[in-house]
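Write out the 3D structure for:
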Amino acid sequence: MRKFSTSEFSKNVITLLSGTTIAQAVPILISPILTRLYTPEEFGLLALFTSLSFILGAIANGCYEFAVILPKKDSDAINIAVLGALIAFVFSILLLVTVIVFNKPISTILGNVEFSLWLYLVPVSVLAISWFNIFSYYNVRIKQYRNIAKANIIKAMVLAIIQVSLGFAKVGTAGLISGQLASFFSGNYKLSTKILKKSKLFSYKRMKLMGKRYIDFPKFMLWSTLANTLSIHVSNIFINIIYSSKTLGFFSLANRTLGMPSSLLGSSIGQVFFQQASIEYQKYNNTKKIFVSTLKKLIIIGIPIFTLIFFFIEDAIALIFGEIWRITGLYCKILTPMFFIRFVSGSLSSILNIFEKQKIALLINLTLLFSIIVILFTANFLNLGFEKILFYWSITLSIEYSLFILIYYRLSNGKKVY
């Protein structure tokens, strides 16, 4: 086995990582500026907008992005990608009609009348996110990791320029949301070029055939993905309703801070793992070798990062973002163990797609969603403080993510998990 620094796996990870590092570095560098230009309440509204967008954007294309890597023929992969993009467009139009008709009731349910204006932009954001997902997976399929890296850099630069400039203009939440929308569309432009160059391969008949061939993805993976995305983002909606947009603002910064290792390292390693594990599965009907190798890398990388976060995050948050944000540091410390295990588990979860175990993925994500909803409803019923909620949250999900890793390991060995 070749060394990590010279293996194809490592080269692909480093290519993605270089772009992702720059893409993540830009928001990190501007965060101390943004936290002084925008209030916690405005960050809370952005978190609510983002949560709704990601929840719906994750399922808007029928989850056909996960099938893009699987066909042997590139022409079939392209038709799956285009099919997913068309489904997302129709979904977004229907969503816009829904928002126009039910704007006030939805805003009331969300517990924030001020958010009613931003609801009209949620369908636009959903379309941008769903297209970015499917275009990214096609670029992974054809090993255009450099293209993905460039798209992430463009996204970050556009986000930074718009949010900072509009922040100085004192436009409030509009500055944060405008930057979010523009960043995704700019990234889509870069990622879509490889597909558009092969437009001659588009075929309605082939799209229909591929849609039927991989129908299990919208039948099962869609619900699994929805449950997974809800488990990550539904908390923002409930926190806004139960507590306030200010509390949500503090919590969203904690999520962004602790999520950096996953978005910076975990997503890059996970994408390359998905591609190379697919190849190993086609050859040997199992993925044991690449799974164990990737698991070890994730643990070795994750332990020092999250250990440093645990011991120094409170003072670091106050110093970097301003004293008003110190409470975010406490939230981070409580959630650090859970985010470490999620960092490892999330990077390996694509093993379920490779083995086409959509039903297992659904059960896993329903378990996560059920746990979070129970914790939040119990907290509301018992009138618990927010810090205590996070403590129970961290313990419960740490145990569950550990069990998921064991399931992935058994599956990679070709063993039954139920």
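Residues 1-6 have pLDDT under 50 and may be disordered.
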